[in-house]
Amino acid sequence: MVKPTHPTEDILATTTNDISAPYRIIGSTRDAMELAGMLLHPEREQPAVVVSTMKNGPVIDPAVLASRLGGEADVYLLNSTSLAYDFSDAMPIDTSVYGGAARCYPPGTGWVNNSGKAMLRRACTEDEGRAAVTLLVEDVAAMVVVPTKMATSSAPRPPSAAAVHGVVSLIVEPDCVLVKLEDGIARIDTSAIAPGISPALLFRPAQKVTGTVYDGILTITDALHTVDEAAEHAALGTVQPALVLSPKSVALFPGLPVRHANDEPAGSIIAVQIVLSGRADGKAWKLATVPDPDKVTDALPFVAGAEPWIRWEPAAETPQRTVPAPVSASLRPAQAQGSATPAAGDVFAALDMVRSRLEHLSADNEQLSRELEALLMESAAQDSTPLPFPAFVGAEVERLRSQVALLIREKADMLGDYRRAMVDADDLADENVRLAHTGERLRDEIRTERARAARARQMSRDITDVADDSPLFNDPENQFRHEIYLEWAKRIPAASKAETPLAEYGFADRFLAGVEEIQGVERSKIIAVAVEVLTGLADSMPGRDMHRLRIGHAGAGFIEDPELGTAWRVALQVKTASARRMHFWRGTDGKVVFATVGVHDDMDI
């Protein structure tokens, strides 16, 4: 596997337990968002192929695809159908992938506005999956670098940027951390690495960080703990601290939200016991609140080697911490003299503190200058009479000069920090206005979509009510076909209808009469199973127990007809007395002929 050239890919490589695996598994919403960010990176040099999955697993085998590509492209697997929606939300229009399909992404980002450059290959059967692998390999072989547009001001650093070291100076809510470097200030955007989490929980004032700077943005290169590691850390039976996100959910780690009912306000930290450990995407977890635990396992730190990202502390000893107060390390001298600490997110209060500190230093500078001038004048006014302690006076003068020079340099540094902080404050204010407008627009779109969904549900109920009143056709066959079509239309999502059509079908002479006469099973169940047979869903559903019919005992030949094809049986009921079954013929051309419905042993087809 070719080593990725961008830091985001190093993060994605941790989504599997074995980074040498031929392909990489995307197992959480955070991983899906990071994958989208990597694909949209303008300096990406390696082609990438993203494979989606269905409920029963991927149709296009990612291991075979990676082996065929031989390192010519990176292969990623969206590990669940729900992650396809998260990936789609983070990608431009017409560039996502879902429903078992796979898409090739050329290097660069020129394909964003030309989706024909990012080829999509669909597959619904194993044969189509094997054919899709061949097409994807050919797509990668024919792929050329698409010209990339000019990078924006927020573009990531060039590959040649050198690592720098800094100290966390100021934490600004909701998603900004200011870091003091040797030659200035840089900003960490926490919305990209831990969306929805307060930066005060991820970093601490005076914490040392390492990264690379481009256009004022610091990209952290220190090792960050992943969601998978956090899921493994939350072992079964242990008591862990959790951050309350809402009355219905908590976070065991940034990017690992878990459904858990609680009565605490958002931002509180509670102790929970891991009753059932789940997956890295936050599903299949079961937690229990522990009001007064004897022992609480420390949470993982966000940055490896740092302090745990949250701690649970008994209320009797220390009030529970919601968000630590962000403090600038460069402002500590002023705080020691009684200055107030700025509230989290109040950048203007921090700037006022900087201004106050500068005024204090200026006053000290003036006072020392006056003392130095008085000493020099006193020394010059002396006549030939020797000073009692000339050596002491000379040393004091040099000490004062050194202190004045130090204060002047400190004043210059503080002025530089102040100017840069003012520029960052203006940028943050502009970004806040933009985000506010975006949020309002999204809220309007959500209200519109909710209204549309309500109208669609009402129309669906109206159609269902009409269908339930009485048959719409006098001919039993036309009525049965109508009910099959309605069931298919309601059951198969709109995005999957083209990929999951109804096969051609017909009826044996006795089938429709048997449907009317059979007892113990609802007609709607027969319709539903017929749709599963016609769409191929029943082939892989364990509850349907679909298999070919044999002539007699086990090991005998299968029942076949030269015109109708092979005889099949599918279960309408399981684990019940005289379980009902449906028998049908399936021809070589895929046409289905429904033969009979009856009990398990009724094989008269």
Offer a concise description of the structure:
The protein is of the alpha+beta class and 605 residues long. It contains 14 helices and 21 strands.
Question: How would you describe this protein?
Answer:
By secondary structure, the protein is an alpha+beta fold. Among the domains are: 135 residues, Glutaredoxin (3-Layer(aba) Sandwich), CATH 3.40.30.10; 63 residues, OB fold (Dihydrolipoamide Acetyltransferase, E2P) (Beta Barrel); 97 residues, Helix Hairpins, CATH 1.10.287; 124 residues, YaeB-like fold (2-Layer Sandwich). The chain is 37% helix and 18% strand. Strands 16, 17, 18, 19, 20 and 21 form a 6-stranded mixed beta sheet that branches. The longest helix has 80 residues. It is elongated. The relative contact order is 0.06. The N terminus is likely disordered. Keywords: Coiled coil.
